[in-house]
Amino acid sequence: MMMNNSLKSLSKIRSGTIISGKWHGKRYTIIKELGAGANGVVYLVRASDRQAALKISDNPSSITSEVNVLKSFNKVQGSALGPSLLDVDDWNQNGHQYSFYVMEFIKGPDFLSFVQQKGPEWLEVLVLQLLSDLEILHQNGWIFGDLKPENLLVTGPPARIRCIDVGGTTLNGRAIKEFTEFYDRGYWGMGSRKADVGYDLFAVAMIIINTAYPKRFNKTTGGESQLMEMVRRKPELKRFEPMLKKALLGKYASAAEMKSHMLGALRPSQKQSVSSSTPKSRTQLHQKKYRTAVSKPKKKSRFLETLLLITAVSMIYVFYLYIQVL
Amino acid sequence: MRTGTLKQILLITDGCSNQGEDPIAMAALAREQGMTINVIGVIEQDVIDDQGLKEIEGIALAGGGVSQIVYSQQLSQTVQMVTRKAMTQTLQGVVNKELQQILGGSTTSMEDLPPEKRGEIMEVVDELGETVELEVLVLVDTSASMKHKLPTVKEALLDLSLSLNARSGSNRFSVFAFPGKRKEVEKLLDWTPNLETLSSIFPKLTTGGITPTGPAIKEAMSYFQQKRSLRRFLSNDDEQFFEESI
Question: String of b and e for A95-118 (b: at least 16 CB within 10 Å)?
Answer without folding.
Answer: eeebbbbbbbbbebeebbebbeee
